[in-house]
Amino acid sequence: MAKLTYLQLTNRVLSLIDDGELSSGVSSAANNSKAKIISNFINQAQNKLFTDEDWYSLYATRTFATVADTTEYAIPSDFGRNINLINTTSNWLLQEDFIRSIDASDPDADTTGAPRWYTIQADNYRLYPIPDGAYTIRERYWKIPTTLSADGDQSDLPIECENAIIWYTVAKMKRYLGIFNEVDRYELDFEKELLNAKRKNTKRINQMLQFQTSTLDTRFPLHPPTVTTIFT
Question: Is the pLDDT assigned to residue 148 strictly greater than 90?
């Protein structure tokens, strides 16, 4: 079963509020039209669902190379939440720590070596020690869903979220139209669909991320830092 497009999601909501459907043109709809308001609520629903859960379809990974004497590296433009960083060159799982801890441990910012710790500083990763050469860093993170804009756009959220997006938007439209006696009903529908989507998501996440330590140790013996903080 294919995901619904932006236009199809908008039309589903239009039909549920007893309004005429669009043949095309969500992005060009008049700002004060119901279709335009609905399309904005759909993107609002995406953002709400993103803040509620780590959805399996938003999993992302990339690698980047360090440069000698460079400690900061830009996070991805679609970055939402971090999972982990791995120094694959040294076979180290990097530990996250506090900026203050790094500063206290290396106030002169002159300690170099293979990166073992990191912190997020503004829009950058700050690695510690400062890389003394080229190391490959593998990053895993949850990305932010792309804002829907064109008629044919499909949500980055999993298909299990579509009903929750629809009911959230209908509830918002009922409130916007002043039909307050129906708002509670659709908000309840939203909560039920969200709970159902989260249950299915949990199963997928477990399949993606869980592992048996003995298997991992045999095939890829990652070594975490021997201490949990670099503060001294």
Answer: yes
